[in-house]
């Protein structure tokens, strides 16, 4: 059994984050802001303060859904929850990830190039986490917001899938379902999702394919010229010009066989039709 979560007081959260000091702000999204903090015992934490919600009721509904989903999830490649606080707003408390997110390490201006072995480790660990959510979890889950900024990196760069704010339970009987409004991150959205609102496990598979292309190329999903990474990569994928895809920052230091396998998986995952994409157990 999972240990019970700790219910923090607002004063504990305030003390840990130095009164939500701007210096401790480490992340900001459409639904929440995240602050770094230190508990009285010295443990480093990340406090996710929920901000999104048309009404308090809507915000609380989202908070309880996320809490319920995290409660089902226990895997080395998903972020564990330490506790929560419901005084003066809604807060979730997680262990702090010393290396930050994949986005900050891969695209940050100060970071040195990620080695090939680390990129491969992140690709494999994220796949294991998704396989767990889709197939192994007591109730199957679609994440709906797989992206580099939601992949946190542990001390040894082991990836952890975070942010279950948009996650949905998969129905018992296998069937896709339609969701409105369309939420998620542009650049990672599967065509059938942003065009028709259709969501199932293949929505996450498409986003995982985009993530693989990011790891291979070092490019962002949408570049400064608003070009989509899938559209940019497709001619190279179709002509098997694999070397042209590789991040120049790697300076040729990669394993060709591993690269070929990752490129093949990425190609299958970003197929236009969800029917042609593999499921995570095939990945």
Secondary structure: elements and pairs:
Layout: E1 6-7, H1 10-16, E2 25-28, E3 32-38, E4 44-50, H2 56-72, E5 83-85, E6 91-95, H3 102-107, H4 116-136, E7 141-142, E8 151-153, E9 159-161, E10 168-169, E11 177-178, H5 191-196, E12 198-199, H6 201-217, H7 229-238, H8 256-269
Helix pairs in contact: 4-6, 6-8
Largest sheet: 6 strands, mixed
Tell me roughly what share of residues is in helical segments.
Answer: 25-40%
N-C termini distance: 29 Å
Mean pLDDT: 89
Number of helices: 8
Counting helices, strands and paired strands, the structural category is alpha+beta
- What spatial form do the alpha-carbon principal axes imply? globular
Q: How would you classify the quaternary structure?
A: single chain
Strand content of the residues, in percent? 5-15%
Q: Give a count of the beta strands, DSSP E runs of length 2 or more.
A: 12
Summarize the entry for a quick read.
This protein has 283 residues and is of the alpha+beta class. 35% of the residues lie in helices and 15% in strands. The strands form 4 sheets. Strands 1-5-6-4-3-2 form a 6-stranded mixed beta sheet. Strands 7-10 form a two-stranded antiparallel sheet. A two-stranded antiparallel ribbon has the order 8-9.
